[in-house]
Design brief:
The chain is an alpha/beta fold. It contains ten helices and ten strands. The longest helix has 14 residues. The structure holds adenosine-5'-diphosphate and magnesium ion (MG).
């Protein structure tokens, strides 16, 4: 391997996923590069969220869901029978469409993962909470409100808090499933800026049905249709000179 060739953080190989008899992912293969933002786009129902969930085995929680093929994190299978799923979900954190803070204080939300993984307590935990809130630009605004219930925060603050909660356990990968869909345009822009700051340290995969958002935030884009990954490549190339006619039709707005 040459020195300038990026090592894939995640490597998906021949992935098929079934919900009962319905096949939601069809022979998906791709590589996600470290410390880049990869966007997954495509019309509603094409399998974006399903694919994202396979990266930290959230699909394990769905009854009747079956996976064939493999996903590797840093070259190691995440579907291996002996894989520790708690550890996997610590390394690959997820942020959802609707901010879902726990009905606990700001502090307890951020400390939650670090506590259950036994990472820290006392002053060390205080430091993790401060760093994590600072990383999402909430510290200066909330440092005097750490005991407030998280549900009293604005939607944008709640989504940032959920990102801080994930960062607190020091993951490698941040999965974001339409993280701005419940936010107004200004909050969306600010969360997109935050992603640009975080990508210096994390590998980010974002699902979005918003093509403009993918074009703004990502370095790589994958286009999905009916359970297939039609193509993936540098965002600029996928939007301006796609290899597949179906991608061309989608990015030029012919359907969606
Ligand atoms: N838990 C589930 N059980 C059965 N079918 C599902 C489930 N989740 C998603 N699907 C189906 O799988 C397909 C892909 O869904 P999804 O991954 O949510 O698409 P997207 O995120 O691109 O909108 C859709 O046809 C959807 O109805
Ligand atoms: Mg979805």
């Amino acid at each position: 391997m040459s020195a300038n060739r990026a090592v894939p953080k995640l490597c998906v190989q021949g992935l098929d996923l079934y919900y009962g008899d319905f096949q939601a992912l069809i022979n998906v293969s791709l590589e996600i590069t470290e410390r880049r933002i990869t966007a997954l786009i495509g019309p509603s129902g094409c399998g974006k969220s399903t694919l994202l969930r396979t990266f930290n085995r959230m699909n394990d929680l769905i009854v009747g869901c079956k996976v064939v093929g493999d996903v590797e994190l840093d070259g190691r299978s995440i579907y291996a029978p002996n894989r520790n799923v708690d550890d996997l979900r610590k390394r690959i954190g997820m942020v959802f469409q609707r901010p879902n803070p726990f009905p606990l204080s700001v502090y307890e939300n951020v400390a939650y993962g670090a506590r259950i993984h036994g990472l820290a307590a006392g002053a060390a935990l205080d430091a993790i909470v401060e760093q994590s809130l600072a990383a999402v630009d909430l510290w200066s605004g909330l440092k005097d409100r750490l005991d407030d219930n998280a549900l009293t925060l604005s939607g944008e603050q709640q989504q940032r808090l959920c990102i801080a909660r994930v960062l607190a356990v020091e993951p490698d990968v941040l999965l974001m499933d339409e993280p701005c869909s419940a936010l107004d345009p200004v909050a969306t822009m600010r969360v997109e800026e935050l992603m640009q700051e975080l990508v210096d340290r994390y590998t980010i995969v974002i699902v979005t049905h918003n093509m403009q958002q993918a074009a703004r935030v990502s370095q790589d884009t994958g286009f999905m249709l009916l359970g297939e990954l039609v193509e993936i490549g540098p965002t600029n190339q996928v939007f301006t000179s796609p290899r597949d006619q179906r991608t061309e039709d989608y990015v030029s707005g012919r359907f969606g």
